[in-house]
Please model this.
Amino acid sequence: QLQLVESGGGLVQPGGSLRLSCAASGFTLDYYVIGWFRQAPGKEREGVSCISSSGGSTNYADSVKGRFSISRDNAKKMVYLQMNSLKPEDTAVYYCAAEAHFYCSGASLKAPSVFRSWGQGTQVTVSS
Model:
């Protein structure tokens, strides 16, 4: 059974860094596009970043470009989101999501409903 588990969230001061991890099990990660999404209280789920199945293509929301970096290790079934220069507005629950035979693009980040497999989320709080 396909399962995604996020970890690495926490409380960090503005300007700090966190690395989120998404551990996949129950399926071959190689065939799946992975997206990172976030949802703040009272707001809709927002696409943050995605990475193609091979890792050769990535996309980022404008709000995180230059600060966040996505990567994956298919052999270890892991996907990472390195978050630097964090801002209070980055505070949200972060989710990783997977979809097979899909593509990673700016449009993908605007279509969370296309991703059928989701983790439970990890809380990121940026506050002094």
Notes: The chain is about 5% helix and 50% strand. The longest strand covers residues 92-100.
